[in-house]
Backbone:
């Protein structure tokens, strides 16, 4: 099986072409739009790493927070999310300067690594070059995957580590040290990438492995690996304040979270009809191991499907429910879809070709059946040029790359870089971290929590989208503007020629806009403080 | 598997995929605008209708939760036995009511606040959607807007339909304001307890 890959390198090999395509889609105009709030959080912390050596939430001017100041202690050391992504971004800033391109570049490169590893994994373990190429191509053509990888965030790193751990698991880690070390490191580092991914991936992964690959698990070596992984993880257990975050878990939210995650799975990763087909195919698989599929490829597809479902079940316990927490599973979804297309092709050529076309170039198989069943999750203000509507996703993606539109954050940055004066204070209800990264001014508000300010800020940006905190109370910045400021009498409104979108370059497929809205509900309005008129007796 | 059965499944698979292909194609914005110019407006009106239904549903459930909380805060109510009606409406809350009144209050207040924010958010989005529908209606030549759009909106002129949605929006907004006041006073009562 492994001999199948031992062939000479050739530039016209399908995988080389796929990787070239992937590199283009991931690296071309990486800075076409500025960071949005979450990316800016990583970028601001990374910039502070260059100054202080550690991620500090306060740089003497601005405070980095989206959780009302819960992310750090008295010394402002960041203790909310793992540090690895921050240090990767810091290294990129050190080499390429504090720019949007430099911040996103390492994560985009890791995305290319994911595409290659999907190919390598399937080819090496199942010896099927067509399946390997198909899976790699499906991943390359997956627009949500591309959008996540083009972010200055941990997403692509999480996907790569997930794949690496599976790659090592399918090797001979019971007797060889190399794969054992790789497995242990990949899982351990996944924790320092995002511990939510670590817990949601390792627990179902281990359980599914016990059931499906029981013959691979030797007790002694498995225990050794578990202990080694715990040693890598243990420092983070205390550093990242996981215990403190567990209090925000609300059991009553679990049904809603499950619904949203499964919606996301069927709308963007594995179409509902394919999910149903797999269920039907494995209907006779029971607890007995003899009922498991005998063919290694199908057995792995079952393993990957169980990991995905297990991930969703565990993730639904976490308070925040966003599609991005499934991002590390996109490579597994591509492997599953590649296998299904091949089966369809071998069963009936026309159907295989149709299925391949639908999955590679359109999102119709994802959305049309969900629309039929009336279970589609489509935010009311989504327009037809988003991934929640039937489209050619790659066409939308390329439109954005070749004709990038200046989004709300771009307009905000341009405005303040042009008009604000040194010493000015900007109060905004969102995108505060974006302005902190791109402008030299003091920016307050956002989701930072209590605002302590003597006097009133020079600039106020009340965004159209109202934001509440986790306890469903209006955010402090919104309250401050409402209760403490008089915009009508003390400020002059300046309306910018752009839509007041809620986020900017957010990658979640139900939020991302590839082109500006035709009829935006509101324009971006910035309030400038009026200078007091001189007293004339 | 017999040859006929195999052929049947082959046909079914290909037909299903073709159906998705054709339906998907008619939904692509560029083609839709060309083939069915008023379909987009129809979809927006349907989404406004769906939005209205969702708001009504949320308002009803918020109203019921607030009534449930009020009942619980009345003297002696917390010790009453589990009732079938209440367990159907609020299975989790009714389950924990007698075991942990403090947790019961905390959870229900949280859910009521969440319900209120949901309605508030939905109302804001619906308002924006109605504005968008208005501007789309203006773009369509007058003769088209007097045509019935589809079976669902048969005999209804989009501008009139939108006007109705606007009226319903006002009604929901009034309902939400009343419930917000009720929730605030309930929150105060619980804090004073």
Residues:
């Amino acid at each position: 099986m492994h001999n199948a890959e031992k062939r000479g390198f050739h530039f016209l090999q399908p995988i080389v072409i796929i990787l070239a395509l992937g590199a283009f889609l991931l690296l071309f105009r990486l800075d076409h739009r500025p960071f949005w709030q979450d990316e800016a959080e990583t970028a601001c912390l990374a910039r502070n790493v260059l100054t202080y050596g550690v991620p500090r939430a306060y740089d003497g001017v601005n405070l980095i927070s989206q959780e009302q100041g819960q992310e750090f202690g008295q010394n402002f050391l960041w203790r909310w999310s793992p540090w690895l992504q921050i240090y990767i971004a810091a290294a990129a800033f050190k080499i390429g300067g504090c720019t949007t391109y430099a911040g996103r570049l390492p994560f985009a490169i890791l995305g290319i690594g994911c595409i290659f590893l999907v190919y390598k994994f399937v080819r090496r373990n199942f010896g099927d070059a067509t399946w390997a190429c198909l899976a790699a191509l499906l991943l390359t053509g997956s627009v949500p995957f591309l959008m996540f990888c083009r972010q200055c965030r941990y997403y692509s790193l999480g996907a790569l580590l997930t794949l690496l751990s599976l790659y090592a698991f399918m090797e001979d880690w019971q007797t060889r040290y190399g794969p054992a070390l790789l497995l242990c490191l990949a899982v351990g580092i996944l924790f320092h990438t995002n511990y939510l991914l670590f817990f949601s991936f390792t627990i179902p992964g281990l359980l599914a492995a016990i059931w499906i690959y029981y013959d691979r698990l030797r007790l002694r070596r498995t225990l050794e690996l578990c202990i080694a992984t715990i040693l890598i993880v243990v420092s983070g257990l205390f550093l990242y304040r996981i215990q403190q975050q567990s209090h925000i878990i609300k059991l009553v939210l679990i049904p809603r979270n499950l619904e949203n995650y499964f919606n996301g799975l069927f709308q963007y990763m594995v179409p509902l009809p394919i999910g149903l087909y797999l269920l039907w195919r494995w209907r006779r698989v029971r607890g007995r191991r003899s009922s498991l599929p005998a063919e290694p490829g199908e057995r792995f597809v079952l393993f990957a499907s169980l990991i995905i479902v297990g991930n969703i079940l565990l993730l639904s316990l976490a308070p925040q429910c966003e599609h991005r927490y499934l991002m590390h599973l996109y490579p597994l979804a591509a492997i599953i879809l590649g296998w299904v297309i091949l089966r369809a092709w071998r069963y009936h050529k026309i159907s295989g070709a149709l299925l391949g076309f639908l999955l590679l170039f359109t999102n119709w198989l994802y959305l049309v059946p969900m629309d039929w069943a009336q279970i589609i999750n489509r935010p009311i203000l989504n327009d037809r040029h988003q991934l929640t509507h039937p489209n050619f996703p790659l066409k939308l993606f390329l439109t954005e790359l070749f004709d990038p539109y200046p989004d709300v954050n771009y307009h905000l940055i341009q405005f303040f870089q042009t008009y604000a004066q040194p010493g000015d204070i900007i109060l905004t209800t969102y995108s505060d971290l974006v302005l902190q990264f791109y402008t030299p001014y003091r920016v307050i508000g956002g989701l930072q929590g209590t605002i302590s300010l003597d006097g009133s800020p020079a600039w106020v940006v009340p965004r159209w989208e109202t934001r509440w905190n986790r306890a469903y109370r209006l955010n402090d910045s919104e309250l401050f503007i409402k209760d403490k400021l008089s915009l009508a009498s003390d400020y002059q409104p300046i309306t910018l020629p752009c839509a007041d979108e809620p986020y900017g370059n957010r990658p979640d497929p139900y939020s991302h806009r590839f082109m500006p809205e035709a009829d935006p509900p509101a324009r971006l309005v910035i309030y400038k403080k009026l200078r007091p008129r001189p007293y004339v007796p | 598997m017999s040859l006929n059965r195999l052929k049947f499944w082959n046909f079914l698979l290909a037909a299903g995929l073709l159906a998705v292909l054709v339906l998907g194609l008619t939904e692509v914005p560029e083609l839709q605008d060309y083939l069915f110019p008023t379909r987009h407006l129809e979809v927006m009106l349907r989404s406004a209708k769906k939005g209205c239904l969702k708001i009504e549903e949320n308002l009803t459930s918020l109203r019921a939760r607030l009534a449930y909380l009020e009942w619980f805060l009345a003297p002696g109510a917390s010790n009453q036995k589990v009732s079938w009606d209440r367990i159907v409406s609020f299975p989790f809350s009714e389950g924990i009511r007698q075991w942990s009144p403090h947790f019961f209050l905390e959870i229900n207040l949280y859910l009521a606040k969440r319900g209120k924010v949901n309605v508030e958010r939905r109302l804001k989005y619906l308002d924006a959607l109605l504005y968008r529908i208005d501007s789309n209606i203006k773009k369509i030549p007058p003769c088209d807007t007097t045509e019935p759009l589809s079976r669902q909106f048969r005999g209804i002129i989009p501008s009139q339909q939108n006007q109705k949605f606007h009226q319903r929006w006002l009604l929901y907004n009034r309902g939400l304001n009343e419930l917000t006041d009720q929730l605030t006073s309930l929150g105060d009562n619980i804090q004073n307890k």
Observations:
- The first helix of chain A runs from residue 14 to 27.
- The interface with chain B takes residues 250, 252, 273, 344, 347-348, 350-351, 354-355, 357-358, 362, 364-365, 367-369, 378-381, 384-385, 389-392, 466, 468, 471-473, 519, 521-522 of chain A (CB under 8 Å).
- The two ends of chain A are 95 Å apart (CA to CA).
- Chain A has 22 helices and five strands.
